[in-house]
Amino acid sequence: MANPSVEVLYNQIFINNNFVNSVSGKTFPTINPANKNKIIDVAEADKDDVDLAVNAAKTAFKSDSKWRKMDASARGKLMYKLSELIDKHKIHLANLESLDNGKPFSDSLLDIDMAVSTLQYYAGFADKIHGKTIPADGPYFTYTKCQPVGVVGQIIPWNYPILMLAWKWGPALATGCTIVLKPAEQTPLTALHVAALSKEAGFPDGVINVVPGYGPTAGQAIASHHDINKVAFTGSTEVGKLIMEEAAKSNLKRVSLELGGKSPLVVFNDFDVDEAAKIAHDAVFANMGQNCCAGSRTFVQEGIYEKFVEKAASLASQRKVGDQFHADTQIGPLIDEEQYNKVLSMIESGKLEGAKVEAGGSKVGDTGYFVYPTVFSNVTDNMKIAREEIFGPVQQIIKFKTLEEVIKRANNTEYGLAAGVLTNNLDTAMEYIDNVNAGSVWVNCYDAISVQCPFGGFKQSGQGRELGEEGLKEYLELKSVSIKKNYVL
């Protein structure tokens, strides 16, 4: 099933249900991070191509268009058909995802299953989006009406390419918006293939457009475009701020952001150490640590600290690093040279500032962008590895004494995406839940993300929510209507 020689069928820009070359004729290479070899050249979109995509999306959103006149239930059926096609092509898509991203093939299969579930969940919402009647003062019949916000720009990251596509497309299509999506330049292949499947599913011309390209060109053009009514972005806090700035300077378009994190996972003395070490291990090493809500600050109470460190180091040392298509691989390569160098520099920073390397701590050979799963103990809050997002397979284990103390330390960050707590004491768990500043809090588990549950961050981890019914609100305008009673038609 796993096939590193998978054929790439689509490498052009997708506009108005057609694959086209870029206006400039430029291309860029997409690279296999396991061996640094070029997979294929991809058409490079910039402002001119974004303009064409937006025009197509704008035309598809006109009030008399096929898309706007379509029954909401029919819109849901189209979405369900797309989900079925993705599932039908799952093996091919998983191979593309692993080739382009570097994640183990089994992880890609799991991501695609979750993407299918996301589209099906929102397909079910398509004909269930409605307003309310309001008993307003005066002789009026008053109600609210939900309408799609219009043309939306969507910019997704490279860590979960096809899953992030589904997170963005699901609510946008269910509400009746039209889409211009920019995949990350590192991982454009699955988005382009799914675009082809959307045409096969029967989506009208211009509803879905995919413009692969770079952030400073294609991404900037989306964020600043006057005919885009909303932009959704998942990525770094630094870039999120730039997108907000461009959105404000252009047409004050609506913005939703899911940004970085430095999420605390707090382990108390009363929790089983073996289970805690396994939960914490998975919390930080899943997806090679390239996870915005990774439990990258592991706070462990002093009574079990030494035992926990020993077990954490053992788990990390046993985790198999290798080619993403090998059946026993648990950690593949990092996404690219920039991320690889960043992670290695952060590891060196930890060493220089006095943290103790318990496992890993170095690169793996020179063939690809591989880094050994790394565990640091004796980490203090002021260290760079404890303050900054690493986005790699690096665990920081930090000692604490009391609940009151650890809540303050957990909140001492500019981020607030997620948090976890492992304890058998309900009062402890509730105190932590009530006081930690995070958009998601997981008790005696971690990364319990489901399509039904809203996801997003506090503070500089973003604004707005994805998933769940809340995710629909980001793509809707609410219109209030009042009709005077006893009027003559």
Write a concise synopsis of the structure shown.
This protein is of the alpha/beta class.
What features would you describe in this structure?
The chain is α/β, with parallel strands linked by helices and 489 residues long. The protein contains 16 helices and 20 strands. Helix 13 links the parallel strand 15 (374-377) and strand 16 (394-400). The chain starts with 12 loop residues before the first strand and ends in a 5-residue tail after the last strand.
Helix/strand layout:
Layout: E1 13-15, E2 18-20, E3 27-32, E4 37-43, H1 47-60, H2 66-69, H3 72-88, H4 90-101, H5 105-123, E5 133-134, E6 140-148, E7 151-155, H6 161-175, E8 178-182, H7 189-201, E9 208-210, H8 215-223, E10 230-234, H9 237-249, E11 254-258, E12 264-267, H10 273-285, E13 297-301, H11 305-318, H12 337-352, E14 356-359, E15 374-377, H13 384-387, E16 394-400, H14 403-410, E17 418-422, H15 426-435, E18 440-443, E19 462-463, H16 470-473, E20 476-484
Parallel strand pairs: 7-8, 7-10, 8-9, 10-11, 12-13, 12-17, 13-16, 15-16, 17-18
Antiparallel strand pairs: 1-2, 3-4, 5-6, 6-20, 11-19, 14-15
Helix pairs in contact: 1-8, 3-5, 3-6, 3-7, 4-5, 4-7, 5-6, 10-11
